[in-house]
Amino acid sequence: MSSCGQTVPAQQLPDERARRARQYPSRRSCDRPAVYPQSPTSMINLSYVALLYGADRLMAIFRDALASGLLLLRHDDGWQVGLIAADFCIGDHGSVAFYAAALGIPFLKAVDVPGDLLSGSPTEQFIREAEPVNLDRDLHVQVLDMESRHDPARLADITSRSLGLPGDHGKAFRRKVYEILGLQPETPLRVLSFKPPDPITSERSASTLVTLMTTVMTEQSGQVRVRRYPAVLEHNHSPDDCREYVQISRDTEVDPRLRESAEIVVAPAPLGEHEAMEWLKRRLESTGVKLVAVVSGTRCLLRLRDGPVLEARTTSLTSSGTSPPDVEVTAAAVYAWLAEGKSFDQPVDITIRLTDLLACDTRISVVVSDGSAFPL
Question: How far apart are CA 341 and CA 320, in angstroms?
Fold first, then answer.
């Protein structure tokens, strides 16, 4: 389980709020740059939600979000580990959200203050004081904003009224329950650790949307910023989203709509040189795709329709040059460079920055492959 997750406790709601609440996992996944799989979004389902809907129904409700990497954590399977690992929480006024705030995790509320809460109670104060999330705005921007000004003490001062005796709460609770039941264990209870959860997952989508920002340094060098988003969640983007997307699909994509709308298609696995050349030719012939790419050995082979075969290799920024570049990210960068009206008549060095994180910088060198021309 990654230490960078977002927990979204599920709340059964009988009205329009139910429809909106179900959008949060999908919107969180589609608004957030997708750095797979280092930074997943998880959803904790409380016991009554799991009993009310059942696992099959929950998987149907969150089908697209699951295909985009959402992790559904079951109420009886180590969800506490997922909560502790989270670096952000969006939730309701339930116990999971309360625990997250008590742990000092940045929190945004997804519900208004329910009218049936006791006025002045810790729970009522907690949900009243928490800042709301807005589904009509980019969720990723809201999360970054909250993280930048998060004060752990703000909500912890409220949650501490209900969660006293830190470190001794379990012992005091058991002692009181034993007293009420008139039972006492013969020996002190041994504290057990929580096991890592086994989340409900789904087969990942074979298509990705990317946004590209190109900075041309010289005719032979530049930088391309690449952000990846789940293609199956394109209908969940915020109303103010005006980004231009390019779709990349692996050749294993079976959805006709996604398969036919891809600008870039990549091979799902490395191929030998001869097989790679044949795949490039065959894939360009079969659809109207603009660019195809495949890893072969330590290089990535790419071809535009009616263009030469290009080869890209990683350079010393990230390795000794022996590791093959990421085929999707490399194809996106080459596409972005060509979209700027540039060419690869001379070798070009491109620094790829993935989701604006310096640690994710990669540098590739792109040249025209020797003996690359073959008729289409």
Answer: 30
